[in-house]
User: Fold this.
Amino acid sequence: SAVISQKPSRDICQRGTSLTIQCQVDSQVTMMFWYRQQPGQSLTLIATANQGSEATYESGFVIDKFPISRPNLTFSTLTVSNMSPEDSSIYLCSVGVSTNSPLHFGNGTRLTVT
Amino acid sequence: TQLLEQSPQFLSIQEGENLTVYCNSSSVFSSLQWYRQEPGEGPVLLVTVVTGGEVKKLKRLTFQFGDARKDSSLHITAAQPGDTGLYLCAGPAINSGGSNYKLTFGKGTLLTVNP
Assistant:
Protein backbone atom coordinates (compact mmCIF):
# COMPACT_ATOMS: atom_id res chain seq x y z
CA SER A 1 0.00 0.00 0.00
CA ALA A 2 0.97 3.67 -0.23
CA VAL A 3 0.84 6.43 2.35
CA ILE A 4 -0.53 9.62 0.84
CA SER A 5 -0.08 13.04 2.44
CA GLN A 6 -2.34 15.75 1.13
CA LYS A 7 -1.98 19.42 2.04
CA PRO A 8 -3.75 21.52 3.08
CA SER A 9 -6.41 19.43 4.78
CA ARG A 10 -8.84 22.30 4.56
CA ASP A 11 -8.93 25.95 3.52
CA ILE A 12 -11.33 28.84 3.23
CA CYS A 13 -10.61 31.05 0.22
CA GLN A 14 -12.03 34.16 -1.30
CA ARG A 15 -13.71 34.26 -4.68
CA GLY A 16 -11.27 34.95 -7.50
CA THR A 17 -8.17 33.57 -5.78
CA SER A 18 -6.33 30.31 -6.49
CA LEU A 19 -5.34 27.43 -4.23
CA THR A 20 -2.68 24.80 -4.88
CA ILE A 21 -3.15 21.40 -3.27
CA GLN A 22 -0.17 19.10 -2.80
CA CYS A 23 -0.13 15.31 -2.85
CA GLN A 24 2.98 13.48 -1.63
CA VAL A 25 3.29 9.69 -1.73
CA ASP A 26 5.81 7.72 0.33
CA SER A 27 6.77 5.51 -2.62
CA GLN A 28 6.90 5.68 -6.38
CA VAL A 29 3.52 5.02 -7.95
CA THR A 30 2.44 4.33 -11.48
CA MET A 31 -0.77 6.32 -11.57
CA MET A 32 -1.91 9.50 -9.82
CA PHE A 33 -5.36 10.97 -10.10
CA TRP A 34 -7.35 13.91 -8.80
CA TYR A 35 -11.01 13.50 -7.84
CA ARG A 36 -13.63 15.97 -6.63
CA GLN A 37 -16.32 15.13 -4.10
CA GLN A 38 -19.06 17.73 -3.97
CA PRO A 39 -21.62 17.75 -1.15
CA GLY A 40 -24.29 15.17 -1.83
CA GLN A 41 -22.60 14.10 -5.05
CA SER A 42 -20.46 11.19 -6.09
CA LEU A 43 -16.71 11.36 -6.55
CA THR A 44 -15.85 12.69 -9.99
CA LEU A 45 -12.52 12.18 -11.72
CA ILE A 46 -10.94 15.49 -12.68
CA ALA A 47 -7.80 14.28 -14.41
CA THR A 48 -4.95 11.81 -14.57
CA ALA A 49 -1.66 13.37 -13.51
CA ASN A 50 1.04 12.25 -15.96
CA GLN A 51 4.65 12.29 -14.87
CA GLY A 52 6.65 14.76 -16.92
CA SER A 53 3.83 15.70 -19.27
CA GLU A 54 0.47 17.43 -19.40
CA ALA A 55 -2.36 15.93 -17.39
CA THR A 56 -5.23 14.12 -19.10
CA TYR A 57 -8.50 15.85 -18.24
CA GLU A 58 -11.97 14.33 -18.11
CA SER A 59 -14.95 15.86 -19.84
CA GLY A 60 -16.00 19.06 -18.12
CA PHE A 61 -12.59 19.87 -16.66
CA VAL A 62 -9.98 22.08 -18.33
CA ILE A 63 -6.34 22.86 -17.72
CA ASP A 64 -6.88 26.59 -17.32
CA LYS A 65 -9.20 26.00 -14.37
CA PHE A 66 -7.41 23.01 -12.83
CA PRO A 67 -3.72 23.07 -13.75
CA ILE A 68 -1.93 19.94 -12.58
CA SER A 69 1.74 19.18 -12.20
CA ARG A 70 3.51 15.88 -11.64
CA PRO A 71 7.27 16.41 -11.69
CA ASN A 72 8.12 12.91 -10.46
CA LEU A 73 6.60 9.56 -9.45
CA THR A 74 5.83 10.60 -5.86
CA PHE A 75 4.41 14.12 -6.06
CA SER A 76 1.61 16.04 -7.75
CA THR A 77 -0.20 19.33 -7.33
CA LEU A 78 -3.66 20.47 -8.31
CA THR A 79 -4.47 24.17 -8.54
CA VAL A 80 -8.02 25.42 -8.38
CA SER A 81 -7.87 28.72 -10.25
CA ASN A 82 -10.05 31.81 -10.12
CA MET A 83 -12.27 30.17 -7.54
CA SER A 84 -16.01 30.64 -7.18
CA PRO A 85 -18.37 29.28 -4.51
CA GLU A 86 -19.26 26.44 -6.92
CA ASP A 87 -15.71 25.14 -6.46
CA SER A 88 -16.40 24.43 -2.78
CA SER A 89 -15.77 20.73 -2.51
CA ILE A 90 -13.44 18.04 -1.24
CA TYR A 91 -10.52 17.41 -3.57
CA LEU A 92 -8.91 13.99 -3.32
CA CYS A 93 -5.61 12.70 -4.58
CA SER A 94 -5.53 9.01 -5.42
CA VAL A 95 -2.78 6.67 -6.55
CA GLY A 96 -2.32 3.28 -8.12
CA VAL A 97 0.87 1.62 -6.94
CA SER A 98 1.08 -0.71 -9.91
CA THR A 99 -1.07 -2.11 -12.67
CA ASN A 100 -4.25 -3.68 -11.30
CA SER A 101 -3.42 -2.79 -7.71
CA PRO A 102 -6.16 -1.14 -5.64
CA LEU A 103 -6.65 2.61 -5.76
CA HIS A 104 -5.54 4.46 -2.63
CA PHE A 105 -6.91 7.84 -1.63
CA GLY A 106 -5.50 10.69 0.38
CA ASN A 107 -7.58 12.24 3.15
CA GLY A 108 -8.67 15.06 0.89
CA THR A 109 -8.66 18.84 0.97
CA ARG A 110 -11.92 20.44 2.07
CA LEU A 111 -12.19 23.73 0.19
CA THR A 112 -14.72 26.43 0.98
CA VAL A 113 -14.93 29.45 -1.30
CA THR A 114 -16.65 32.54 0.05
CA THR B 1 -23.27 7.59 -19.45
CA GLN B 2 -22.76 4.98 -16.79
CA LEU B 3 -24.67 5.73 -13.63
CA LEU B 4 -24.46 3.86 -10.36
CA GLU B 5 -27.53 4.37 -8.20
CA GLN B 6 -27.10 3.61 -4.53
CA SER B 7 -29.91 3.06 -2.05
CA PRO B 8 -30.80 3.98 0.51
CA GLN B 9 -29.06 7.33 0.58
CA PHE B 10 -29.19 7.48 4.39
CA LEU B 11 -29.56 4.67 6.93
CA SER B 12 -29.61 4.97 10.71
CA ILE B 13 -29.83 1.77 12.73
CA GLN B 14 -29.16 0.40 16.19
CA GLU B 15 -26.13 -1.66 17.07
CA GLY B 16 -26.73 -5.36 16.41
CA GLU B 17 -29.16 -4.89 13.53
CA ASN B 18 -28.60 -6.24 10.04
CA LEU B 19 -28.72 -4.10 6.92
CA THR B 20 -28.35 -4.24 3.16
CA VAL B 21 -27.36 -1.45 0.81
CA TYR B 22 -27.69 -1.60 -2.93
CA CYS B 23 -25.82 -0.42 -5.97
CA ASN B 24 -27.67 -0.59 -9.29
CA SER B 25 -26.98 0.33 -12.87
CA SER B 26 -28.50 -0.12 -16.30
CA SER B 27 -24.99 -0.76 -17.62
CA VAL B 28 -22.85 -3.86 -17.39
CA PHE B 29 -19.64 -3.47 -15.41
CA SER B 30 -16.57 -5.67 -15.72
CA SER B 31 -16.12 -5.28 -11.99
CA LEU B 32 -17.46 -3.28 -9.07
CA GLN B 33 -15.71 -2.02 -6.00
CA TRP B 34 -17.01 -1.06 -2.58
CA TYR B 35 -15.35 1.63 -0.49
CA ARG B 36 -15.97 2.98 2.99
CA GLN B 37 -15.23 6.60 3.74
CA GLU B 38 -15.12 8.04 7.24
CA PRO B 39 -15.39 11.80 7.96
CA GLY B 40 -12.20 13.67 7.16
CA GLU B 41 -10.67 10.71 5.37
CA GLY B 42 -10.47 9.36 1.87
CA PRO B 43 -12.35 6.26 0.69
CA VAL B 44 -10.80 2.93 1.61
CA LEU B 45 -11.32 -0.08 -0.64
CA LEU B 46 -13.27 -2.92 0.98
CA VAL B 47 -13.64 -5.38 -1.87
CA THR B 48 -13.66 -5.85 -5.63
CA VAL B 49 -16.14 -8.22 -7.25
CA VAL B 50 -15.44 -9.36 -10.78
CA THR B 51 -17.57 -12.41 -11.59
CA GLY B 52 -21.34 -12.37 -12.07
CA GLY B 53 -23.00 -14.02 -9.09
CA GLU B 54 -19.85 -13.74 -7.00
CA VAL B 55 -20.19 -13.54 -3.22
CA LYS B 56 -17.34 -12.27 -1.06
CA LYS B 57 -17.25 -12.10 2.71
CA LEU B 58 -15.20 -9.77 4.84
CA LYS B 59 -15.92 -10.62 8.47
CA ARG B 60 -19.50 -9.37 9.02
CA LEU B 61 -19.74 -7.84 5.55
CA THR B 62 -21.07 -9.86 2.61
CA PHE B 63 -20.77 -8.50 -0.92
CA GLN B 64 -22.65 -9.87 -3.90
CA PHE B 65 -22.27 -9.11 -7.60
CA GLY B 66 -25.40 -9.63 -9.67
CA ASP B 67 -25.49 -12.37 -12.27
CA ALA B 68 -25.78 -9.81 -15.06
CA ARG B 69 -23.02 -7.66 -13.53
CA LYS B 70 -25.32 -4.64 -13.37
CA ASP B 71 -25.83 -4.52 -9.64
CA SER B 72 -24.24 -5.31 -6.32
CA SER B 73 -25.25 -5.43 -2.69
CA LEU B 74 -23.52 -5.11 0.65
CA HIS B 75 -25.02 -6.85 3.65
CA ILE B 76 -23.77 -6.15 7.15
CA THR B 77 -24.62 -8.56 9.94
CA ALA B 78 -24.87 -7.35 13.54
CA ALA B 79 -23.77 -3.82 12.74
CA GLN B 80 -21.33 -2.10 15.09
CA PRO B 81 -20.77 1.65 15.68
CA GLY B 82 -17.42 1.20 13.96
CA ASP B 83 -19.29 0.38 10.75
CA THR B 84 -20.51 3.98 10.59
CA GLY B 85 -19.42 5.72 7.40
CA LEU B 86 -20.21 6.48 3.79
CA TYR B 87 -20.34 3.34 1.65
CA LEU B 88 -19.53 3.93 -1.98
CA CYS B 89 -19.74 1.59 -4.93
CA ALA B 90 -17.62 2.25 -7.99
CA GLY B 91 -16.91 0.68 -11.34
CA PRO B 92 -14.55 1.26 -14.26
CA ALA B 93 -15.54 4.37 -16.19
CA ILE B 94 -16.73 3.98 -19.73
CA ASN B 95 -13.49 5.44 -21.12
CA SER B 96 -11.21 3.51 -18.80
CA GLY B 97 -10.67 0.43 -20.95
CA GLY B 98 -11.75 -1.64 -17.96
CA SER B 99 -9.04 -0.17 -15.75
CA ASN B 100 -9.72 -0.09 -12.03
CA TYR B 101 -8.19 3.36 -11.85
CA LYS B 102 -10.63 5.49 -13.78
CA LEU B 103 -13.71 4.96 -11.72
CA THR B 104 -17.29 6.12 -11.78
CA PHE B 105 -18.80 6.33 -8.31
CA GLY B 106 -22.28 6.14 -6.86
CA LYS B 107 -23.40 8.88 -4.48
CA GLY B 108 -23.06 6.56 -1.54
CA THR B 109 -25.06 5.34 1.42
CA LEU B 110 -24.41 7.19 4.66
CA LEU B 111 -24.71 4.62 7.44
CA THR B 112 -24.98 5.53 11.10
CA VAL B 113 -24.90 2.76 13.67
CA ASN B 114 -26.07 3.96 17.06
CA PRO B 115 -24.77 2.27 20.23
